[in-house]
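Re: your question about phosphoserine phosphatase

S., sorry for the slow reply, the queue was backed up all week. Below is exactly what I fed in.
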Amino acid sequence: MRRLLLVPAVTALLAAAGCGSPAEEASETTAAADTGCRTLAEDPGWYGDNRDRLDAMLAELGSCDAPDGGPAPLALFDWDNTVVKNDIGDATFFWMLRNGKFRAPADGDWTTTSAFLTPAAAAALGKACAAAKPGAPMPTDTDTACADEILSVYAEGETRAEEPAFAGFNARRIEPAYAWAAQLQAGWTEAELTEFVEAAKAENLAAAEGAEQRVGSEDVTGWVRYYPQMRDLIETLQANGFDVRIISASAEPVVRVWAAELGLPAEKVMGVRTERDGDVLTSRLAQCGGEIAIPYIEGKRCRVNEEVFGVSGAAAFEQQPEPNRPAFGAGDSDTDVTFLTDATALRLVINRNKTEIMCSAYDNADGNWLVNPMFIEPKEQAEPYECATEGYIEPDGGEGPLRRPDGSVVGEQVDGVY
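Result:
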């Protein structure tokens, strides 16, 4: 297992990068070039000095020499809306729903598909999809009522009658709709599911930017694009000896298909994982830290700590000492804030106007946060973030003050990078 040992001098250099004199900044850029290793391509999509600071990190922590078996700095990427524009979990869900590939519960009980479904949601799904045969693929390609109810529960978190669809979960460790997307893949082998993902991938990459598709009676997003800048960043990190991995709240078999195009093998991909019956997927969610959790906010830290650093039990939810933490992280949403906070060198945030992560990034307490507009269809400037009152997602799903490690409260933050 390769781990990063980050010396204080490196931390100080990275914290100061982009904030020194022009001569110092030029020196850092020259240092990256002088290594003879790959640096990031010049691209107008990079905001301010973000590219220079990333290159400085590569020069200080990376190496393009032949690996010597020693520690490698760990780089973690969220996937949806970080490496690609739009959401591959959505893309797969929509394709499976549109093509009638979700199976009805074998015993007719929808609560077996998710322990977090409310009685109201289970009843609504049972009624709307009553024509489906237990255990068989539901005809959501032709049964609009069934497709609409499933889509509403997934996309809106409520029934068509606007009743809550999920309850009883820790909102910092579970996003039940994301988990449900993986759980509804039950009954297929991973090989069969891979065929569905490949079909959805081809369709979404071929579609025009901005395209929509009809699912049930609703029009939903119908396209995905790889960000060229993030492809280049991943490939450059790999060329400089970083251990690059994906940590996503989409289903793991789905992310594996998309990540393979960037040279990331299955063992470098972490996503929502369900248990197997032989080689058949089930709706049973895998545990992390001794409880049901998915790669979502604190659940992302748990999965990384367990799988990469060998931390077991409840301690997997806790921040580890620096040698057992990633050097770099990239994300776009509140679901990414905890694993990004763990990164010891730089933390890249793609700005999608998500409150908790943007409060942390703009507060920039240690100087290691980078904010970049979305590379495709960047968001407009958001209203100032009320971090002191609604900057933190509470376990019960409510909002509270965002606090720094020392306990002080983060104040209002202006959206300055858009």
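Residues 209 and 295 are 28 Å apart (CA to CA). The chain has three domains: 1-72, 74-344, 348-418.

Happy to talk it through on Thursday.
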